[in-house]
Amino acid sequence: MIHGFQKFLLRGNVVDLAVGVVIGAAFNGLVSTFTKSFIDPLVKVVTGGAVAGQLVVRAAAPGVDAITVDYGAFITALINFFLTALVVYLLVVTPMNAVMDRFRRQEKPATAEPSTQEKLLAEIRDELRRRA
């Protein structure tokens, strides 16, 4: 059982997946920092300045404080997701598809074996050539 598990771990797919997860996590941190540094200030400017897109809702019930809904953080997370997906698609998926298409073995179509009628005609032709 341990030998089978070792073979499973040493197969290329598991190692590739592990490397992809680690690189993906590092890339997610990079995109998160980018959105916090560059996109958040833009969202703040568009949504009202000092507070990045926060909506304060006052509840009608007595004794309930105001509720703050930070939709600016949601917009930033949405932009973060789309940037991550776009860059992964452009820098990983598209090149890998091109490489796979380039190195994929071109399957040659199987040559059809001549029918019995064609074989008989070829024999008749060969016999006629031999007699002449």
Uncertain runs: none
Number of domains: 1
Strand order of the largest sheet: 1-2
Q: Which H/E pattern describes the elements?
A: HHEEHH
CATH class category: Mainly Alpha
Helix content: over 70%
Q: How many angstroms does the end-to-end distance come to?
A: 74 Å
The fraction of residues in strands falls at 5-15%
Report on the biggest sheet: 2 strands, antiparallel
Specify the CATH homologous superfamily. Large-conductance mechanosensitive channel, MscL, domain 1
Strand elements, count: 2
CATH topology group:
Non-ribosomal Peptide Synthetase Peptidyl Carrier Protein, Chain A
Give the second-level CATH assignment, the architecture: Orthogonal Bundle
Shape: elongated
Number of helices: 4
Cα-atom Rg, whole angstroms? 33 Å
Summed over residues and divided by their number, the pLDDT gives a mean of 75
Structural class, by secondary structure, is mainly alpha
